[in-house]
What we know:
The chain has helices at 2-7, 29-36, 38-65, 83-89, 92-123, 131-143, 146-156, 164-170, 184-198, 200-211, 216-224, 229-257, 261-266, 278-287, 299-335; strands at 68-69, 78-79. Strands 1-2 form a two-stranded antiparallel sheet. Mean pLDDT is 84; it is low at 1-12 and 14-23. By secondary structure, the protein is mostly helical. It is 68% helix and 1% strand.
Amino acid sequence: MQLLDTAAPKPPTxxxxxxxxxxxxxxxxxxxxxxxxxxxxLYLAPLMALLLTFVVYPIFxxxxxxxxxxNGIGSPGDYVGLDNFRQIAHDSIFWRAVGHTFVYAxxxxxxxxxxxxxxxxxxxxxxxxxxxxxRTLFFLPVVTSPAVVGVxxxxxxxxxxxxxxxxxxxxxxxxxxxxxxxNPKIALGIIILVGVWQTLGYNLVYFxxxxxxxxxxxxxxxxxxxxxxxxxxxxxxxxxxRPVGLMIVILAFIGSFQVFDLVQVLTGGGPYFGTEVxxxxxxxxxxxxxxxxxxxxxxGLASAASFFYGLLLIxxxxxxxxxxxxxxxxxxxxxx
Length: 336
């Protein structure tokens, strides 16, 4: 009997509420998951190869040129160290270009998001006839080349032929032709208006995709409870659309900071650098031109400006994400 008692398993000393020992996952579990999803990684391999070749490598490759004074011909040999960065930091035209870029983004994004949200709410209505046609109509400017759009707008705003000035003069709304693209104050506004129209379709599609993820049963329950359209929008649509909306805002700002084609075709950064944005500034430094800070190409200076601007965008993106997280925490604390 004593032998049986000693061989019997002992009860846990922690009592009834004692926790079971933690079960650790095997070390090779992660590799098993990767092996199970090997076909997914295989499908992503071509995209990753293109990304590394045409995006990641050029970023680090151009950074090496930022320490040289080089016109792009032959191999760089005139090492200048940090002089290119110091020249960019003290260049007033660069900071004017940064200001114009931020003005463009800060004005375009809120207007564009508001219009896109209203259109998405309207086109998401199942009772609306020809909804697919309207979606295609609003998305058409996106698939149109910005360079082509810029040329057409430039012809419409010219001072000859059947242009906007001619129509306004015939309607007696103006007394003399307006130099739309020759006045810096007006030209930047024209670029903003065209930018809102040309890239509106992206945000419209994003909002439509977000709205279609909201279950229809939620709206039916709100309707049964007697909630009106405004209350349904503020208490159901907006809270459920907020995660998607956060990504839409971030993507909209990133896209706006990359404006180049419209400015280059419409004004080339002029007049008198009045519409110069960072991308046209970098382009003019790298390839020269009458709007550039230097008449001769300077790839090293352009690379330094690109890297400098990239740091500014990274800092702005981090601040943007931190701001949204802070607002989300405040909402969660208020509800609690």
